[in-house]
Amino acid sequence: MIQTMIQATALTVLTLLLRRVLRGRLSQRTIYLLWLPVLVRLTLPDTWLHIPSPLSLMNPLQSAIQNAPQELKPLIRNLMTGQITVSDTPNLPAAMASIDWQLIGSAAWCVGTTILLLRTIRINRQFRLLLRQTRLPLPYCGKLPVYAVPALPSPCLVQLGGQPGIYIPEMQTHDPELVRHILAHETAHFNQFDHVWELWRIGLTVLFWWNPLVWLAAAYSRQDGELACDEAAVNALGEHECVAYGRSLLRLAESQSPHSNLACTTAMCHNGKSLRERIQQLAHRPKHSKLAVLFTFPVLAFSIAAAFTTASASVSLFSEIYDQSFNDLNAAIAVVEAYIADHPVWQNADIRYDADFNLRWRTDYLGYNSTEKIYSPENVIVLLCDFTAGDGPVLTPGTRYTDYQFILARPSDDAPWSIIDQGY
């Protein structure tokens, strides 16, 4: 979750900058597509991203954790993993490290998500009930069925019962020109799959309700979607309809109000600043700039490399949270390598470190043995080893063993590691 928010936040900020810089230089539909990496990154769990890269945004975080003061390590470990450290040291970081912040955060997230999810379900249930009960089919031929609804706030595209349809306020169906513009706009929404994008946006907003940048990304991506549809609608209607289409937007804004941001629908009506921007874009149609295209693709490639990869170090990013430092971890690995070199029974050995396994198994080991008074948790480490057994009295020769565990400990931070236990 932490990696997701860091990388998605950086992508959001970059996209906000790009849309501002590229406005008027690229088509609105191209600018709208810039939001796709943000949505994908928010959707992908951290566990799916295992590609190390020197460009990853996790590298600075890894360096910051590695160089953090020692007194902050228990608090960082607490925030990242939920491991509570009780200490007699009278300072604020030690006191905060004794609080289960992940439990508090998880409880707050569950409450907020549940409330917002119920609100979203209620809004959409009431809206769909209104459409089902009051819609009247209109005799228009096109890709989608068209309906008139008496109490509808604004023209919109809605997927109802698995079938997308265009819904128009009944009072607006008597103006053929306005209806023609509405149909062109909402058909453009359908062509760019906005009924799917909107559901995706709302789902991410519910899950990440506590992050204001997610709400900002949802609002601006929705606005860019409207601009893209305006562009597509005018292209379909013809340039001669541009002024008339702008007048239709003004009429809709004067007579209606927009839908809720939690409604799974597209709304043609917008007020205030967004409406002014739409009118300005109609008056000054953007032209493709080759320089803007050459600028955009490298920036996008770099941002994807930074936001969809993990830290480049061979050790897990959060190993620095569980233990002292990468130098300490390498020193522990060197101890095991020296032990294996002295015992021919270990052949083709592959030593590795798993941060989550280390935390879980180390906690169990300290709980079941009386070593806690001798070793503090950060001075105990568990390494895993895969090896092929050689000739020996216990192991079956030629058999490949996996996840064999070496437990190492040291009495203090500056003492050398030693193997205190091994096995399964």
Topology, element by element:
Blueprint: H1 2-22, H2 28-33, H3 36-43, H4 58-66, H5 73-81, H6 92-97, H7 101-134, E1 136-138, E2 146-149, E3 156-160, E4 163-169, H8 176-191, H9 194-207, H10 212-237, H11 242-255, E5 266-267, H12 272-283, H13 290-307, H14 319-322, H15 326-341, E6 346-352, H16 355-368, E7 380-389, E8 400-409, E9 418-423
Give a brief rundown of this model.
With 424 residues, this protein is α+β, with helices and mostly antiparallel strands.
**Percent in helix:** 40-55%
Task: Provide the spatial order of strands within the biggest beta sheet.
Answer: 1-2-4-3-5
Strand content: 5-15%
The helix tally amounts to 16
Distance between the termini: 31 Å
The arrangement of helices and strands along the chain is HHHHHHHEEEEHHHHEHHHHEHEEE
- Low-confidence segments, given as residue ranges, are 314-324
The largest β sheet comes out as: 5 strands, mixed
Which of globular, elongated, flat, extended, rod-shaped describes the shape?
A: elongated
Describe the protein.
The chain is α+β, with helices and mostly antiparallel strands and 424 residues long. Helices cover 54% and strands 13% of the residues. It is built from 16 helices and nine strands. The strands form two sheets. Strands 1-2-4-3-5 form a five-stranded mixed β-sheet, sandwiched between helices. Helix 9 packs antiparallel against helix 10 and helix 11 runs antiparallel to helix 12. The longest helix has 34 residues. It is elongated, with a radius of gyration of 29 Å. It starts with a helix and ends with a strand. About 3% of the residues have low confidence.
